[in-house]
Amino acid sequence: MAYVLKVKARYRDDSTGRVLRLPALLTENGLLLSHLRYLAGSSGRGQSWRERSTFAVMTLLRYINANVGIFTKTTELLRSFDAALRGGTINPATLEDPSGLYWSARTTADANNLIYLITMYTDWLARQSEYATQRANPFRLATNAEQRLNWCAYFQKHEQVFLNHLPGSEEEKKRTRYVRTIGRVKESSVYLEEMKRFPEENILKLLDEGFIRAENNSDLDPDMRADWKGRALTLLMHYGGIRKSEAFHLYLTDIDIDPVRLEAIVRIFHPSEGASPEDGYISRKDYLAKRFNRVPRNEYLKSERLHAGWKAPVLSSSEKFFKVEFYPPSKATEFLYVFKKYLIHQRVEPVNLDHPYAFTNSIGQPETIKNFQRLHRDAVRRIGLEHSKRLGTSEHGHRHAYAYRMHEAGFSGVAIQKSLRQRSYESHFVYIQPTRKEFRDEMDSRALEAGL
Known about the structure:
Elements: E1 4-11, E2 20-27, E3 30-31, H1 33-41, H2 47-66, H3 74-87, H4 108-126, H5 145-159, H6 170-174, H7 203-210, H8 222-225, H9 228-240, H10 244-247, E4 255-258, E5 263-269, H11 284-292, E6 321-323, H12 330-345, H13 369-382, H14 397-408, H15 413-420, H16 429-432, H17 436-449
Antiparallel strand pairs: 1-2, 2-3, 4-5, 5-6
Helix pairs in contact: 2-4, 4-5, 7-13, 9-12, 9-14, 14-15
């Protein structure tokens, strides 16, 4: 019986001790080795991309398995797969699906992304020397996942009929001699969709009254009752503008004190390429491996608790780090005070000093993003707000509040871009746009001034 499951794999392509941790697809004939090789060769990609590519290929294989014996031409199958992504597989009149897939319709953007990821993989597959010997013809007789995917790659290379990842505009297509039969569907234009930021009028209440340790809620000592870790992480996001994932790559040694200004100096290093805090190691990856028998947190699979993403922010030093720029600058002093309180009253030291990370959980292991998300959600609800990205009260809302605060203070777009560590100048626009309410209030004010 044909099947496909996502599993975790350790991949090694030589006789060294170098091992990659990758998501993998297990079929009735074993691991889909070609996709493992493809992921291993895409070393510059992050874990999120690897997970999504694996999901896309798994989706295609599940569709093929559910439709064995129906299609005799690859083109027909691919057209039908594309339609199933966009329209779902359930009959709306009967709510039945004889294929057993029971897929709901995906958004245009989601379907385009899955198709693009599959196309990237089969483009790579078509370039491999062995693909020609593994094709299955006719298609309905194929029982091996490698054969089925190689058959798709064959048609993609020789017939130019597979899923379209070429530019979407008709004008660009006219400049190209060949276009793919199954094309990208044009998405509806969205101009800078409104992104909510955490409400400034509630931030002090969140820090002071929201972040309370539940287990010490009745403690009379305010230092024992306060969740200093939650406060420190939130200060970094709200007044330092960092992404939440970036805070979980911080080592204790990355937080220093400016003796003149008496404020915190926070440097966030690239999790693997950053300079080691100790001599004798060529990088943080080398340091973690030799000193602690660990890997950088961005190399864990997304499904693993210690995973922390890294979105390639612009770095500002040859040592591969960027410095957190607090705004207003006085918040660097406040962060230093809160972080000291955390070290004294809350931090649990790791047993045998088995990791260098600044923020720990209740047993001394590196704190996880998932647990902080829970702490932040509880703190928001504790002060009477709903926790929602739509309302700006999720963790990412703090980064938006930081950028908008700088915009309101008159900082240039270049300064905001630099403070957010973004590569593209245009990327900061989404952070500084007014809300619909603010835009309407300004329209009312201008109309009143003009006597309209």
